Amino acid sequence: MAVTPKIAPSMLSSDFANLASEAQRMLDFGADWLHMDIMDGHFVPNLTIGAPVIESLRKHTKAYLDCHLMVTNPLDYVEPLAKAGASGFTFHVETLKNDWEELIQRIKSHGMRPGVSVKPGTPIEEVFPLVEAENPVEMVLVMTVEPGFGGQKFIPQMMDKVRILRKKYPSLDIEVDGGLGPSTIEVAASAGANCIVAGSSVFGAPEPAQVISLLRNSVEKAQQTLIQ
Ligand SMILES: O=C(CO)[C@H](O)[C@H](O)COP(=O)(O)O
């Protein structure tokens, strides 16, 4: 079964002072999801938003809020984010010891969709048990830059991880994040990524709708080849 493209502008590149209108602008341009980067200033050297901002945005949109938790203690965020209206909850595998089963269970019981993310230096094998669990994650996010900041350069070597995942799990949602745009989408889509996070390439474009459409077309085309 082919996976579907999900184009998720990273709101980290938006004007936070006008978050609701920026979000609506991206949805009007054709975005499927809104990617929300939650950073605690500890797991990564940057501090962004938390549950109060998600709650404020939720009052203005019904869109899927794809929350990426770059935080040291993801368990602490489950209840506040669920109450705030988050849709997806993607935590980092590097933050866990043996408590991932409880974390996934709590994310699901709070009505959110669990995902797991890997930093560039983390072997992809570390997520296999979470994808194959009885109560599994439903998405793997392969970071294609060091997490923490927008506008960095895509690391093409991360595509090996995407290829391994796509071969092993044909119907898994595989997200890529960092440096994605018109010049890097072909390599990511042909490796098998179907959920595309893009910040500066979308927000910085004269015609963001054209970039979103190009990203979607690349994923659709690559998926047709991959399932043949
Ligand atoms: O998670 C992130 C940073 O940690 C951002 O989502 C990501 O970097 C997107 O920005 P850009 O497309 O400009 O690279």
Automatic annotation (TrEMBL):
Top-level enzyme category: isomerase
The biological processes this protein is annotated with in GO are: carbohydrate metabolic process; pentose-phosphate shunt
One of the record's GO molecular function terms: D-ribulose-phosphate 3-epimerase activity
Q: Which reaction does it catalyse?
A: D-ribulose 5-phosphate = D-xylulose 5-phosphate
Task: Extract the PROSITE patterns matched here.
Answer: RIBUL_P_3_EPIMER_1, RIBUL_P_3_EPIMER_2
Keywords of this entry: Carbohydrate metabolism, Cobalt, Isomerase, Manganese, Metal-binding, Zinc
The record's annotation in Pfam families points to: Ribul_P_3_epim (PF00834)
Quote the record's cofactor note.
Answer: Binds 1 divalent metal cation per subunit.
Gene3D superfamilies given in the database record: Aldolase class I
Q: Report the cofactors.
A: Zn(2+); Fe(2+); Co(2+); Mn(2+)
Check the record and name the InterPro entries matching this protein.
Answer: Aldolase_TIM, Ribul_P_3_epim, Ribul_P_3_epim-like, RibuloseP-bd_barrel
Q: Where does a divalent metal cation bind?
A: H35, D37, H68, D177
**Binding of substrate: at which residues?**
S10, H68, G148, F149, G150, G151, G179, G199, S200
- What protein name does the entry list? Ribulose-phosphate 3-epimerase
Origin organism is Vigna unguiculata (Cowpea)
